[in-house]
Structure formats: C-alpha cells, structure tokens
C-alpha cells in the first residue's frame, strides 16, 4: 500500500510539473515575468527595462520588412467607425503633405475597401521570385486582398486561410524603400489581429473610435490587445466627432461629445485629434479620390493632415525614447 501511495504521489507530482510547464510555455515572455510580481506591486521603469530585455527573443521573432522604417497599425475595436477611411486619408496625407514614402496594407481580408477608396482596379505584378509589387496611386503604394478577387466576390474563408493570406501580404510583397507602412487592420481583436501584431514589427498603433460608449468600450479592448503584445499606442483619433450644418455651421454632436478624448486621457494615451462628419468624405471615398486630394483646403482635410503630422512627431519621439514611458500597475 505504501509503495502504491508513493507511485501515485510521484505520478501526481509529474503531472503537476507537466501542466505547469505547458502553461508557462504558452505565455509571452513578458507575461511570465509579470506573473511573478505580487498583484499589489508596481513595476518601476527599471523593472520595465528588464521586461523588455527578457522579452527580446519574442520581439526579434517579428518580421522587420526590408527597407521599411516604421510600420503603424490603424485599428478599431469594432467596425463602422471609419477606420479604413481614416487609414486611407492618413496614408495620403503622410505621402503628399509630409513628403514621406508611404505604403498602405489593407489587412481587412473579409472586407477590403482600399481598392475602391484608392481607385485601383487591377491586379499587382509578380516578380521572378514570386513576390507581389504594390500598386501605387496618389503617391501611396498599396496592397489589398481586394486586388486579387472580383470586386463583389465574397471571401468565405476559415481562419487558417485568412492567416495564410495575411502572411503572404506581409512577407510576400516587395514594398521597396518606405518611411511608413500604414496597416489598415481588420476590426476587433481576433486571430487576424494577433497574427499581424505578432508577426510584424509594429512601431505603434493608432486607435480610431467614435464618441459613443459602445465604440469606446471596444476601443479599450483593442488598446489592451496591443499592450499585451507590446505595441505602443501612438494615440486616439475621434472620428465622426460632430456634424456641422452646411447652412449655419452649427455643430451637432450626434454620437456624443468628447468621449474619445476622455478615454485616451483615462488610459494615459495621447489624443491625436477629431474628424467631423462631412458628406464630402463619403462621396470622395466612393469616387476613389481621398478628400485630402480632392479638397485639400477643407477643414476635414486639414484635420487629417494635422493628425498625420502628429503621428510623425510621435514616431520621432518614440525613436528617441523621450516619451514612451509606460507605468504598469499590477
């Protein structure tokens, strides 16, 4: 009986060790270190540096695109907040107003909208080494799943096929020399988003939200996802901030007022700016001419340009290590 009990205890201990190892192995390096701190402890900047050094192998496993200086994600927690419209106009503003070499990756596999918004209706050329050449318009080099399928064809794919497509559009494209690659992320925080954030070396993420509470709740989830994979938040942009009457100019705050700024402040992140609702944004997007190009002197166009300049400044600050000093409270 004693021998049986001894064997049973040994088996139990071995099982516990195996389970413990598997759990530990499934965690990101940062999670493993952070989990060792007591929940009431606060991690100092010095300890944060240790986390980043410890997480180095994970960071190094991400793809650094040849010739691309910075990769930024334009993301939203939910669909319908104007993320793609913002991504397109930011990319065009960065290229035409900030005089940068810019690429635009449409990573929204199920709902690619870059082809229409950028007025591109042809397939990309393929090089001898089987890589795709992005298609350029308005000074921006673009790649989208929409280039490879018919305009109204549904993309009915399961997760693994989507992951494979994203892999091809990141690793299988000859972007050339770029100052910034703008990634129009799919909405939400699922497999596709994790694939991109864990495979690309992102310089930062821009969070797009409308002012209402439902959108802001999902935006918070998006921020936490990026924090989980150690991607800095460049800031929040509030889209559809208000509607200005075309006759009297009086603003109407259809979705609420100032919610995105308050959320950014409460989470300790930069608020980039507001983009109002304008009919011209919709008509320009449908016509394939971004409003930054079609109406460069309009108020909303100027708002996009100011947002682009703010993002460039934030990237420069991050590169110098002057502003990204997060404080983690456990």
UniProtKB/TrEMBL annotation:
The keyword Chaperone does not apply. Keywords: 4Fe-4S, ATP-binding, Iron, Iron-sulfur, Metal-binding, Mitochondrion, Nucleotide-binding, Transit peptide. Belongs to the Mrp/NBP35 ATP-binding proteins family. InterPro entries: Mrp/NBP35_ATP-bd (IPR019591), NUBPL-like (IPR044304), P-loop_NTPase (IPR027417), YlxH/NBP35 (IPR033756). PANTHER family: IRON-SULFUR PROTEIN NUBPL (PTHR42961). This is Nucleotide-binding protein-like. It is found in: Mitochondrion. Its main location: mitochondrion. It comes from the Eukaryota. Its cofactor is [4Fe-4S] cluster. GO terms for molecular function: 4 iron, 4 sulfur cluster binding; ATP binding; ATP-dependent FeS chaperone activity; metal ion binding. One of its GO terms (biological process) is mitochondrial respiratory chain complex I assembly. GO terms for cellular component: mitochondrial matrix.
